[in-house]
Design goal:
The complex is a heterodimer of chains A (139) and B (1259). Chain A has 139 residues and is an alpha+beta fold. Chain A is 39% helix and 24% strand. In chain A, strands 2-1-5-4-3 form a 5-stranded antiparallel β-sheet. In chain A, strand 4 and strand 5 form a beta hairpin. Chain B contains 26 helices and 52 strands. In chain B, strands 21, 22, 23, 24, 25, 26, 27, 28, 29, 30 and 31 form an 11-stranded mixed β-sheet that branches. The chains are: A alpha+beta (139), B alpha+beta (1259). The interface between A and B is medium-sized, with 27 and 34 residues.
């Protein structure tokens, strides 16, 4: 469903980024990177809200002609960004939300791995296959 | 009252629309009331309760009053709401029953019938009363009667449908009241009508919507119906409700498009799929775009038309609602979704047409918003509009590229054709913007007209967008637009303008670690540098790209080749060196020193093996690899010694470098790794450790300000150090990946060498690693030759051959043939020369180098060891056997006239440390060939035995017992034990009572030897005994050398027995045994056994009447408290000096315990008279008391050497003149002179019968 899924560290460097059409990888990198502007904006606007009441899902970051970029930020300020094809109108907000939740759960599993160094690139196979499953459904 | 005229063109719908109210009846009357009515009606709000649970609203009602005509009433099925008359009013002034009956009633009936025919129930009859008229006609019925009549005739059960308005044109309170009542009624009725009619309309509309699945259903028709509702809400100023209508239409349409995309196509939609022919953008300046509305009404609108119209309506309503920012946001969504929908519906669009449409629409929206907001508002809401700006910029850019306006040569004919067709699709400019200079239409037209104009517009837009993004902190977005701009500049061949944008973007990507954008931007930057001719920058970027794993192999090769091309190109000026940082070119993986501890002696060879991982995709030939080295003479000389070298073995000398921080560091800033070192500060005086800690040596790199560097990519000034010391390696080809390169150097000056930089030269290019971390050093040392002599075992034993290891560390000295060590012999230590001595030569690293025989020549004074030839910085090791001649330790206070003179012998330890061996030190001075000074070496030998002797007496018979105690860890074989008298008396004979000639003595065990002493003549006063015994280690049966026996000298005096003491305890008379508590008689009998002897001649001898006597003191002591001595326990007796002279003493003693009790001790002392001229002794404490004599322990020294019996039996009596008074002194008799014949005797004591009442008082 998603065409690009990215996990971005608190310091804004990518921990994981994968996009489905490999030839457009660069474009998605640029897109995800640029979307961090909006994430930052939303997070800082949200900063005043109480921590436990904070909504992790940031909603649509910004639409482009062809894609919709959604954001999600964990309490530890790790960002998830998902790019969805605009033509894929079947996707509703709720589905995006649940995809993010799935992503977050899988990310938590990665973090629980004692051999994983927080801040390293994510190379977990489980995480990768979960992302794959989120991408495959488009076809 | 202009309403009737306005009705004719029903299509002009403006905000000015008001709900229609018809007026029938007396038109003149109405005309007179109208001004007040239209003024008063909207004055007060009215609450409108809504159906379907919608929230009630307060609205101000206005109305458009028109004259009643039958045509106004809607026919069946007419859905128009705007022209719908919501209320019908009949006006009458009639006050005359006649008139009423004649005309008004008929008129009213007619009116009512028309209304009924159209089933309209919203009507009102107004009866205006005039006081003036009433006065004129006095005979008329009371006014109420007309009203009642009307009510009666027309308002059955709806009496409220008829109201009275009194004196409407007067200014009285009654008029006011009546007006208010009327207006309230009017408003209420109007609202009722709205509720009812709108409700009905909505129901109809819903029914229509439900039919949308039916084949004939048309969206456009439905659109018109629902828009009617929206209009009414707008008319009622309920913009929110109006907007809802449009939003519903929008959503419905979107859903259809989505369903169409999903294959569920509606027939009517196919109409929207017709090719797009016009793309003139949104029109937002008019409240209602009638053109488009008509198209929709005629079902001729394209998708863009429909969307445009819908959005223009939404925009209008949003602006009414003062929500301009929502307009911007919705506009962006709309534009995106339109593009998507066209794609989804597969509508054929001329390329670029959509770009034009979007561009125009963006600008239109922006201008529309600008038109209704002030500058400050716009500035604070950039976040909402910037998306449109950037979208417009992007669209203009793509149009520029499409129409060939960006290329260097300008557009070609094909591009021009395209431009023309695009412009054609724009149509003519709309009249409402025709007079605006900056209208979107004009802008686009101008931009597409020429290359220059395009550039101007594009730059304007881009700069504006970047500025906006920057101002709201969307740096990344700004950089991204900047990159587009850079691309444009590159196309326009002005790389100098592009550079700043590219570098800005690159810095951003690098700082946040985005690999792919970094690579891409670098590629662009490389091209930019190339065009600008910035060779150094270009090469550096190229090297970064050549090592970039995100590029394809071909691209990397290309960039690598670029570097190599440059390197091979410039032979002309060799001084022109280009210095580049190494990390992109290659990185150091590890380094290995050989020898592994990185310490070499002067002249030694050090090799340095580095593993350099080349990151280039192809092999690179490097002319020279050089490591510059910093030299310092270090104070810490310890590291340079051979000792350190052998002890301090590092883990095979490999140093691993921390893996080069990955191309994109985890940390956002590519700050260098911490370089930590340990520090030790030692006090200058004694080299003890004062402080220790860890310091970071690159603080200046870590703590500098983040933004200070001009660019992260350019390492600040890679300085090449020009050190005097450089390790070089020429002509190396670095293959991709790991390369092992070996440097060799011969050590020259001693000191510490620190590796500083690594530099690879490829033609005029230098790749420099400016700083090697961790700190790497190697040391060159220069060592003086050294000789060390140490025992092979823990300690050397005297008397038997012992091995000693000689180690010669040659240092810088080369041992030549004929060099020898000259040992000056110590007298008591022999160096045993064997036929075959072998020396082993080791290299510096403890590897055995060779093996040579050793020649040892011994002469009287000197032993010469000729060393085998050995090169410098080697070690010669050999062992020699030495033998220290054994001897007994000298017993204190005794003669030292011993057989072997031992001048260098030191008695270190005597009896105090019970089992410690006595040691002797032998000093040997050695002359070494490399020094004019002699080395003095002390060897310490331990004597394995300790020997004590004892004199034993039995009456007058004498025995000597010698005890040999083995203190060493070895077992020995003792043989040929011998005791000889070395004195001159020949009359003395020693008869051995020992059994075997060979004795085994185990470690830590003792062996005793006994001889009987016999003499023929008068017993000699003293005995000089020498005990000797041969010994050899028990483990070695055969020894090459004959060993000297162990000797022990001792001296004894006065060993002849003079007195015999006999004590006896007799039970009380009449009893068989002693009893506890009963006094017994103790009889002491002292007998002299010899005549006057030499030994007697001392002060104790008194002469009176030719009669010699010795004064003796006896003392009875019972140390074990078995006996109580009653009465005097001591006394002085005068003993005649004659054989068999006997003295008896009787005493009373009482046994305190039952059993076999040993007799109390009887002690005998020489009693010296006070007048004797003895030197006074210091021991004032020792004072004779009546019962007990304090025994001074300071004579312990004598105890061991000449003890006779157990402790307590020997008394010294160091009396003397005490406190100036003449006091007699006591002197112990030498142990050999007294023989106690009752030693160890016991007496049987039986318990008393009632010893529980025993009470003994002893005085």
């Amino acid at each position: 469903m998603a065409v690009c899924v990215a996990v971005i560290a608190k310091e804004n460097y990518p921990l994981y980024i994968r996009s489905v059409p490999m030839e457009n990888e660069l474009k998605f990198h640029y897109m995800v990177h640029t979307s961090l502007d909006v994430v930052d904006e939303k997070v800082s606007a949200m900063g005043k809200a109480l921590v436990d009441q904070r909504e992790l899902y940031l909603g649509l970051l910004y639409p482009t002609e062809d894609y919709k970029v959604y954001g999600y930020v964990t309490n530890s300020k790790v960002k998830f960004v998902m790019v969805v094809d605009s033509s894929n109108t079947a996707l509703r907000d709720n589905e995006i939300r649940s995809m993010f939740r799935k992503l977050h759960n899988s990310y938590t599993d990665v973090m629980c791995n004692p051999f994983y160094n927080p801040g390293d690139r994510i190379q977990s196979r489980a995480f990768d296959s979960m992302v794959t499953s989120m991408m495959i459904q488009v076809c | 009252m202009d309403a009737p005229e306005e009705l004719l063109p029903p299509v002009i719908y403006t905000m000015e629309n008001k709900p229609i109210v018809t007026s029938a009846g007396d038109q003149n009357l109405f005309a007179s009331v109208y001004p007040t009515l239209s003024q008063q009606l909207p004055r007060e709000p009215m609450e409108w309760r809504r159906s379907y649970g919608r929230a009630p609203k307060m609205i101000h009602l206005e109305s458009n009053f028109v004259q009643f005509k039958e045509e106004l009433l809607p026919k069946e099925g007419n859905k128009a709401l705007l022209t719908f008359p919501f209320l019908h009013i009949y006006w009458t002034e009639c006050c005359d029953t006649e008139v009423y009956k004649a005309t008004v009633k008929d008129d009213l009936t007619k009116w009512q019938n028309i209304l009924k025919a159209h089933s309209s129930v919203d009507w009102l009859i107004v009866v205006v009363e005039n006081d003036a008229k009433k006065k004129n006609k006095t005979n008329i019925l009371p006014r109420t009667s007309i009203v009642d009549k009307i009510r009666n005739d027309f308002c059955n059960k709806q009496s409220d449908r008829c109201v009275v308005l009194s004196d409407p044109l007067k200014d009285s309170s009654r008029t006011q009241e009546s007006w208010n009542a009327f207006l309230t009624k009017l408003r209420t009725l109007l609202l009722m009508s709205f509720t009812k009619n709108l409700g009905k309309f909505e129901d109809d509309m819903r029914t229509l919507r439900e039919k949308r699945t039916e084949p004939g259903w048309s969206f456009c028709e439905y659109f018109m119906v629902q828009e009617e509702l929206a209009f009414v809400f707008e008319m009622l100023q309920q913009f929110e409700d109006a907007l809802v209508q449009y939003d519903e239409l929008d959503a419905l349409f979107s859903q259809y498009v989505v369903n169409f995309g999903a294959g569920d196509g509606a027939n009517w939609l196919t109409f929207f799929c017709q090719p797009v022919k016009s793309w003139n953008g949104l029109v937002l300046r008019k409240p209602i775009d009638m053109e488009k509305r008509e198209l929709i009404q005629r079902q001729e609108a394209t998708l863009l038309d429909l969307r445009s119209y819908l959005f223009s309506r939404q925009c209008t309503l949003l602006l009414f609602l003062q929500r301009p920012w929502e307009v911007a946001q919705r506009a962006l969504e709309l534009l995106h979704s339109c593009v998507q929908e066209l794609k989804l519906l597969d509508v054929s669009v001329t390329p670029g047409a959509l770009d034009c449409w979007v561009f125009l629409s963006c600008l239109e929206v922006l201008q529309r918003i600008e038109g209704c907001c002030d500058r400050a508002q716009i500035d604070s809401n950039i976040a909402h509009t910037v998306g449109l700006w950037s979208y417009a910029t992007a669209k203009l850019k793509s149009l520029g590229y499409l129409c060939g306006l960006v290329s260097e040569k300008g557009p070609n004919s094909e591009d021009l054709d395209r431009t023309v067709s695009l412009l054609a699709g724009l149509g003519a400019e709309r009249p409402e913007t025709a007079n605006t200079a900056q209208s979107p239409y004009k802008k686009l037209k101008e931009a597409l007209s020429s290359v220059e104009a395009f550039e101007k517009h594009y730059l304007d837009l881009s700069h504006a967008t970047i500025e906006m993004y920057t101002s709201i902190g969307r740096i990344r977005s700004a950089k991204f637009v900047g990159k587009d701009l850079a691309e444009f500049y590159m196309k326009k061949k002005s790389p100098q303008k592009a550079e700043i944008y590219l570098e800005g973007a690159l810095k951003n990507y690098l700082a946040e670690g985005w690999a792919l954008p970094v690579t891409h931007t670098r590629k662009q930057l490389a091209e930019c540098h190339k065009h600008l001719g910035q060779i150094e920058n270009y090469l550096q970027t190229s090297s970064l790209l050549a090592s970039d794993p995100h590029l394809t192999e071909e691209e990397r090769k290309y960039f690598c080749q670029e570097i190599l091309n440059f390197a091979s190109r410039q032979p002309d000026s060799p001084s022109d060196k280009v210095v580049l940082p190494m990390q992109s070119f290659a990185y150091l993986r590890d380094l290995r020193f050989t020898p592994s501890n990185a310490v070499v002696h002067v002249g030694g060879v050090l090799s340095l093996e580095i593993t350099l991982c080349s990151q280039m995709p192809i092999p690179v030939h490097v002319e020279q690899l050089a490591i510059s080295v910093h030299f310092s003479i270090e104070k810490n000389s310890y590291r340079k010694t051979a000792e350190w070298l052998t002890k301090h073995k590092t883990s095979n000398g490999i140093v691993h470098f921390p893996p080069e921080s990955p191309p994109f560091p985890a940390a956002p800033s590519s700050s260098p790794a911490l370089e930590l070192y340990e520090t030790f500060e030692r006090s200058p005086s004694d080299n003890s450790l004062n402080t220790t800690g860890i310091i970071c040596k690159n603080v200046h790199m870590l703590l500098r300000r983040q933004e200070s560097g001009p660019s992260l990519d350019v390492a600040p000034a890679v300085a090449v150090e020009d050190g005097a010391h450089v390790l070089k390696c020429s002509a190396v080809t670095l293959q991709p990946g790991a390369n092992v390169i070996t440097f060799r150097t011969q050590a020259k000056e001693p000191g510490t060498y620190t590796l500083r930089q690594l530099c690879a030269s490829v033609g005029p290019l230098c790749f420099v690693l400016p700083h090697i971390y961790p700190l790497l050093q190697y040391d060159v040392y220069c060592q003086e030759p050294q000789l060390r002599v140490e025992p092979l075992a823990d300690s050397l034993l005297a008397g038997i051959p012992q091995k000693v290891k000689f180690t010669v560390t040659t240092g810088h000295y080369t041992v030549k043939n004929g060099d020898s060590l000259q040992l000056s012999n110590a007298e008591a230590m022999l160096i045993l020369c064997h036929a075959e001595n072998r020396a082993v030569i080791y290299s510096n690293t403890r590897e055995k180098a060779s093996d040579a025989s050793l020649r040892v020549q011994s002469s009287d004074k000197v032993t010469s060891i000729s060393l085998p030839p050995a090169p410098a910085y080697h070690m010669i090791e050999f062992e020699l056997e030495v033998l220290s001649l054994p001897s007994a330790p000298v017993t204190a206070g005794e003669s030292s006239t011993l057989g072997v003179p031992e001048p260098q012998r030191k008695h270190k330890d005597t009896q105090k440390a019970g089992h410690r061996m006595a040691t002797t030190d032998h000093k040997v001075s050695i002359d070494c060939p490399w020094s004019i000074y002699s080395t003095v070496i002390a060897l310490t030998f331990s004597v394995p035995f300790r020997t004590t002797h004892t004199l034993l007496s039995a009456g007058t018979r004498k025995y000597v017992q010698v005890c040999v105690q083995n203190l060493s860890e070895l077992d020995f074989e003792l043989s040929d034990s011998r005791l000889v008298d070395t004195g001159d008396s020949t009359s003395l004979q020693l008869a051995p009572l020992n059994m075997a000639s060979q004795q085994h003595i185990y470690s830590q065990q003792s062996v005793f030897f006994v001889w009987e002493l016999t003499w023929t003549q008068e017993p000699p006063p003293s005995l000089h005994g020498r005990f000797s015994v041969g010994f050899c280690p028990a483990s070695e049966a055969q020894l090459s050398v004959s060993l000297k026996p162990y000797t022990y000298d001792f001296h004894m005096e006065n060993f002849f027995t003079l007195y015999s003491v006999k004590a006896e305890i007799l039970p009380p008379v009449g009893t068989e045994h002693c009893r506890t508590g009963a006094l017994c008689a103790l009889e002491v009998c002292v007998t002299r056994l010899a005549d006057l002897l030499e030994a007697d001649r001392d002060e104790a001898l008194t002469q009176s009447d030719e009669y010699l006597s010795t004064k003796l003191m006896y003392e009875v002591v019972d140390n074990s408290s078995n006996w109580a001595v009653c009465g005097k326990s001591s006394g002085v007796i005068s003993m005649p000096v004659a054989a068999q002279a006997t003295h008896r003493v009787h005493m009373e003693v009482m046994p305190l315990f039952a059993g076999r009790l040993p007799l109390p001790d009887v002690r005998l002392f020489k009693y010296l008279p006070h007048h004797s001229a003895y030197p006074s002794q210091a021991d004032a404490d020792s004072w004779i008391e009546n019962d007990s004599l304090s025994v001074d322990k300071h004579v312990d020294d004598q105890l061991d050497s000449s003890s006779v019996k157990s402790r307590g039996s020997v008394h010294s009596a160091p009396g003397g003149e005490h406190k100036g008074l003449p006091m007699p002194r006591l002197q112990a008799l030498p142990p050999g002179q007294v023989c106690n014949s009752s030693t160890a005797m016991q007496v049987l004591v039986v318990p008393s019968r009632d010893d529980h009442v025993l009470e003994v008082s002893v005085t």
